[in-house]
Amino acid sequence: MSDQDTPDPRDPRADLRRIAFLLEAASEPTYRVRAFRAAQTLLARLPADELAERVRAGTLRELPGIGEVLERTITESLRGEEPVYLRRLEATGGRPVADGAAEILRALRGDCHVHSDWSDGGSPIREMAETARELGHAWIVLTDHSPRLTVANGLSAERLQAQLDEVAVLNAELDGFRILTGIEVDILPDGSLDQDRDLLARLDVVVASVHSELRMEGRLMTRRLVTALADPHLDVLGHVTGRMVTGKRRRPPSEFDAEIVFAAAARFDKAVEINSRPERLDPPKRLLRLAVEAGCRFAIDSDAHAPGQLAWLRNGAERAFGCGVPPGRIVNAGDAAAVVAWTSSHDEGAG
Q: Within this chain, do residues 64 and 195 fall inside the same structural domain, yes or no?
């Protein structure tokens, strides 16, 4: 490698100091700030050659107070790279999460993942739409479940066709508000989508999620998700890990190679859902940051099964802001026409 190819050196102590400052500016917990300031002090006492040797040998974590995040931050800085953690904080400008989340929330024009009493929701389509309009939305996507999820009263092809007819009637009556046609379709174990393909092609937005065999071996789950993302009918990858973090149904996230999956999402221009349900909050923040780094689009969705749950978008907005999701990559910050234009570009590859 020539001198011209060698990245300019960075000072990891300066990067740690800047991170601590931005954490303080964003009113993050004191213990987090102290961890970065303590690491900065530790590095100031460490000879430069010892630091470089520890990075080379992978022994940084033997030092007191140095965990995975700090190790990665220091290593990236010594390589001449702006640490990912610092880049995320710079993207949020040191603003408190509450302020940044409110700004993102105000930018949202609709919700890509909403259920009704046609599957496992508790209210009629009209009530969900009227509530969304009262919240300031211009549109929602109706995404009731697909047939194999029988526990959720998933829609057969015939029932989905009937629902499309009802949505057409409602759209003629809802002045200035639009219900986009959609589905939350199951991703089957082989990566195929659980609904008639001709019907999928007619829908405005297809959210696809894994609801079965969540403990599948990681290599196979990676293949399953990538196969689904390559399908031109899929638009949004729903609650990607399937985890449950509260309540009686707690379960760990599915295992898969997140870098490969998010690279596929970016490659095929599909959105990764930021699921706002309190028991899901999916993907976890670590994976959400990876998706940001991969260049993915995002859909901040309520996954509402009742009218009041439509307000849960705030949870997703907080996570989006805290993980540095660029507002320009949030698909439901656009109007209905922009969303349909984006999803139609996927369907053009289905011929």
A: no
